[in-house]
Amino acid sequence: MMEPLYDAFLTLLIPSVILLHLFVSPYTKVEESFNIQAAHDILTYGIPTSDVAQYLNQNYDHVSFPGSVPRTFTGALVLAGLSKPWTGWLTAPEQRQLLVRAILGLFNAGALLSLRNAVARTFGPSASKWYVLFQASQFHIIYYASRTLPNMYAFGMTTIAMRSYMLANLYEPNHYWSKQYIRQAVFLMTLAGVVFRSEIAIFLATHLIYLLLRRRASLKTIIPAGLVGAALGLAATVSVDSFFWQKFPLWPELVGFYYNTILGKSSEWGVSPWDYYFTNALPKLLLNPLTIGICTPTAITIITSASRSRSFALLIPSISFIGIYSLLPHKEWRFIIYVVPSLTAVAAAGADWIWKQRLRSGWFGKYVCGMLSMALVLSVLLSFLTSSLLLAVSSLNYPGGEALTRLHSLAYANSSGVVKVHLDNLSCQTGVTRFLQLPPPGTDSILDTESAPTVWVYDKTEDESTLLDPSFWTQFNYALAESPARVPGSWDVLDIIYGFSGVRLLKPGYAGLEEFARRHVTKGWWLRLRMEPKVWILQQERGRDLPS
């Protein structure tokens, strides 16, 4: 009776924690900006069929803020299309942002659950339970699963591809299903690489080389699937992006690859040592130290030869991908995120073996595996606790989104006519999106803006010389500013939004809410989050003449 309930709980766990992270931290940052703005513009303004260039110039955000290289609209177009039927059920503009992100998050949750099924068939049903527990307690995967980064569009596709790759290894090399699963994996990875992230080409290459060296696949199986994936990917991205960017032909991922890798422009964002992915990013992504220190070594050394072979088939290509990609000087953890489900699956196989051995007779099973099993359970609980703490801290990093929402709640009822708001750079980088802005009349909005007494106009001017001109600021009713000193003129402070600014170590003797725990548990020591003013909500002093 309990087993089906536990299985149902595990099935719901990953999508539930992804949605929980979304609702606790609903705002976005600058790296997500292009895709979230693009989804907004498609949902709100639709896709023009005439006077395309003029319509895009008037309504779409990417025309005014194109970025250093063009990026693909393909993912945003799909998300907007899937979101469209549900917008009529929503009651506030910002809920559409939650809807768009929830759809992406549930897609990635579905991909992770599909891999869980492959783990069950590859390493056993009980190993799939450990896989879910490990995966659901990893902060970065869960937190970013609903965030509109190009990597997270690709992540779901590569995870489904890895499901097919794992299943292919269950059959003899020439078996029909082995070939079919390999074709699926190659097709999906090629498609994801062409449209979203070029580094997936390396990820695909390391897996294909492994298959070829192990004589588990032939070029006759691989090449047609890759050509079909590349052709469909190119047809999709070139047609969609040439239209939205009004440049033909345009393949954004090729432009980005040339700009960042060939020209080396990505290094301008910082460089890291060669071992960064192994010593910093990978432990951070997997989070639970026992997955690396105990479970993975167990999976590749102790358990049956069939399981060892299947573990190596996941481990060797993934580690090879990280090693090759480490040659590029600019490194970010999200560039290697595709390996995490595979490495988690291997760790789950090792954890499952340890868990089963605790029931065996003899000192090794009873004592060694018994203690390791207790450590595994404790490590999962601590990982969930750590992930929860990281979620709480991360949710404090979006003062721009908080400030705009707060401004609307303070000023909407008391405003009329045209209300002009200036949004500074920090606000735009830490949560402000078009989804949060009150929409203009005549758009596809869930608000009845035609009958509303107020029209809100938002300005994102960044030019420093313009911002230093006092006459520029006279047009605005409100401003969101990193510092009031940077806004010329006379302004009233409506509110101040605080944001996370580090951790403070409190010494013994410091009075506070945590006194009981500090006195009886930590002997007076305590950690407290340090919050600092981040965004000031300013209102032009009343009585000044403002343009209407």
UniProtKB/TrEMBL annotation:
EC numbers: 2.4.1.-
Catalytic activity, reaction form: an alpha-D-Man-(1->2)-alpha-D-Man-(1->2)-alpha-D-Man-(1->3)-[alpha-D-Man-(1->2)-alpha-D-Man-(1->3)-alpha-D-Man-(1->6)]-beta-D-Man-(1->4)-beta-D-GlcNAc-(1->4)-alpha-D-GlcNAc-diphospho-di-trans,poly-cis-dolichol + a di-trans,poly-cis-dolichyl beta-D-mannosyl phosphate = an alpha-D-Man-(1->2)-alpha-D-Man-(1->2)-alpha-D-Man-(1->3)-[alpha-D-Man-(1->2)-alpha-D-Man-(1->3)-[alpha-D-Man-(1->6)]-alpha-D-Man-(1->6)]-beta-D-Man-(1->4)-beta-D-GlcNAc-(1->4)-alpha-D-GlcNAc-diphospho-di-trans,poly-cis-dolichol + a di-trans,poly-cis-dolichyl phosphate + H(+)
Membrane topology: Multi-pass membrane protein
Location within or outside the cell: Endoplasmic reticulum membrane
Main location: endoplasmic reticulum
Keywords of the record: Endoplasmic reticulum, Glycosyltransferase, Membrane, Transferase, Transmembrane, Transmembrane helix
Broad enzyme group: transferase
Keyword Chloroplast: no
GO CC terms: endoplasmic reticulum membrane
Membrane-spanning residues: 6-24, 152-171, 191-213, 225-245, 285-304, 311-329, 335-355, 367-393
Protein's pathway: Protein modification; protein glycosylation
GO biological process, alphabetically ordered: protein N-linked glycosylation
Superkingdom per UniProt: Eukaryota
Molecular function as annotated in GO: dol-P-Man:Man(7)GlcNAc(2)-PP-Dol alpha-1,6-mannosyltransferase activity
Matching InterPro entries: GPI_mannosylTrfase
Biological role: Mannosyltransferase that operates in the biosynthetic pathway of dolichol-linked oligosaccharides, the glycan precursors employed in protein asparagine (N)-glycosylation. The assembly of dolichol-linked oligosaccharides begins on the cytosolic side of the endoplasmic reticulum membrane and finishes in its lumen. The sequential addition of sugars to dolichol pyrophosphate produces dolichol-linked oligosaccharides containing fourteen sugars, including two GlcNAcs, nine mannoses and three glucoses.
Family classification: Belongs to the glycosyltransferase 22 family.
Protein's name according to its UniProt entry: Mannosyltransferase
Species of provenance: Rhizodiscina lignyota
